[in-house]
Amino acid sequence: QNSKSYNELYAAYFIDRHTGWVVGQLGEILHTLDGGKTWKFQRSGTQANLNKVYFADENHGLVVGDEGVILTTINGGVTWELQNSGTSNDLYSFSLSPEGILAVGENGVAMRYAVDTEKFIVELPPAAEEVAAALEAQPVEPVEYHWEIIRSGALQTYFTDTYFLSALRGWTVGHGGVILNTTDGGKTWYPQRSGVTEDLQRIVFIDAQHGWIGGNSVLLRTENGGETWEVIREGLETIYYIGAMHFINPKVGWLGANNGQTLHTRDGGKTFRLQKTGLGYPPIDGLHFINPKEGWAVTPRMMGSGSYLLHTVDGGDHWEVQARTNQYGVGIHFMNETAGWVVLANGASLLTTDGGTTWKQTLSKMSGGTRLHAVKFRNHTEAWGIANDKTLLMTHNQGKHWEVINDSLGNQRATLDDESWVHQMAKEQFLPAFNMTNAHILEDGKGWIVGAMMSAPRTTDDFVIDADEQVQDTIGQIYSTTDFGENWHHQLGKQRNTLRDVLFLDEQHGWIAGDNGDLFLTEDGGQTWQHLESGTTQRIVDVHFTSLEPKWGWLMLRDATLLYTQDGSQWTAQNKQERLPHEEFFAINDVAFGNFSEGWAVGERGDIIHNPDGGTTWARQRTSTSKPLTSVDMKFAPLGWAVGTNGVTQRTVNGGEYWKFHETHTGSDLKAVSFITKRKGWAAGRGGIILSTTDGGFTWTSQASGVNQSLYDILALSEQEIYAVGATGTIIHSTDGGETWEQEHTGINDNLYAVTRVKGSDTLWAVGQLGVVLRRPKR
User: Fold this and answer.
1) I need a labelling partner for 552 at 20 to 30 A (CA). Which of 49, 290, 616, 656 fits?
2) Alpha carbon distance 515, 228 (integer Å)
């Protein structure tokens, strides 16, 4: 990974797989929100070498370094405070306890600091008894979702498994603690709160009420059909992989895990007892019990290819090797104490009629290089599997024949006995980059495939186009079929353009605009949307209408071109539109309109341009910065404000004839500004920063938002009520002028870039990354 730092780096700390910090030479502090794909510099305020870093959560952090430096933060590193350590010796490390901080360093120095919240504002680890209490099973209470998902974006996760109780009711799980639930066969998927951030790997139900989800060092259990999930961690601390789960009733079950281990529960998963096979590192990939005592398992052999087939008669306390295979075993099923079936990675099957004492191999013709990596059994003759991350197969005769069921050839069903199956798969209905992980097929032909694909490259900062900062997201994918795979429907994960602006003139009529010229119109409150021909492939930065009758409107494009309409549907560039002179590059980030059609637009290099009447002429205005400006508010024109990179603010009292700089005392990028009166307003930006002013923008005060996700838009509804939206689906709401903020759950993890209120109503709309659209109905 490229940190873009030339200094030596000495220490790193991550609070999860995405969020971390690195410290090093000459006061260097780097921060990442995407697992190290991109890094941003944070200002430490010191030139001393920094030697160790620790974060208790996403906000509270501590750093020690040379010359006795101790730094603390309460906002994820947006600002760092230098503390008085009482020494000039270099500090190399520290330890935290409920009693305080012990720092050690140069010349044998060891200094203990009592916890003084005025000096050391950092959460310390809880006492041992508190940790024990935290490990007790706690039900995850359902959360209230104030926002409706009108148009799904794409969930940034990797789906790993899916399970359906019926043709309507099912779940899908994935990385980052993601749980989705559907009650209509997948037409709509709703998030369920898991209470965890670990990757979830397996899901199974024993009946309509009792289900379990296994993950990295965690198990979730439900006794109410998935309405709530209880988090179990105790006894699972060393379990980083769950390859199989099998329950014989709501109380008794087993997990197949890493290091050749099984875990046994007799209370429905509240507690587990660790059982070891003695076969070392490889995981248990298949597991099946016919009663509380007798069961079988399959696990890879440590040396060479192939697997061990294991047998127990005491509930898993002791395992014996029944057989060795030359191919990897990917699944095992027993109908009773004698009849068993093992599926191998090459598609062959092993069958036994004497409880595993002897096995007979059944060959299945598979194309060379085809490898099964996941298998699920419907019964003792039918199973489906995933091969090479691309192919869904099914057998109805214990593996003698495997059918490819994710082809699109109508009634032409392909079998792997046909040499042409590879060519038939080339005509599949799936996106080419789609990697399948698992599936669930019901007896009536309804089925679902889950997995993930990489999105198109995008920039990590949506206001600064920098090819070096392009990243790709992992987007969860769900496909469904109703005819045993002859036809497939893409239910979730479609690639859509990011949306940038939303405008509603009343409850029924609204427009949404975004990248690649996307423009949508609704005339029924968002129930249906019409895709309009904008005539451009550029990013549409802003959509503006003055009224519904007549429907005069404007679209501002990224390069400062204006498109016009007189009917709300047909858009054209006005004849003889004047361009700014001598400009090789001009990139608009935001537009604000004052009275009727007078507009201001802000962009890169501190640019502000002005149009007095919605006509053809835009004129540059004089500003006091060359840094990018990202947001402008002119609702009280000629009074106006603009904000941008590194905490820049600009203020005008004369419609922009001159813009004056005002200090915010922050180096954080500001992304949005909103005023509710001529004196009272707020700005929001990177790292969850929120600033407020009560004197018209002369001075700004920081407010604690309670989040460290970047905020991309802010909307003041009154002097007391404010909304802000931002990264990973973040929406925060204040009802006391920004003194306190409450996060509103959205169930999405797409970035939100704009929030607006319907004219004359309390209904709110938000839009963002990969086409997501949310609505908060009027209260």
Assistant:
1) 656
2) 38
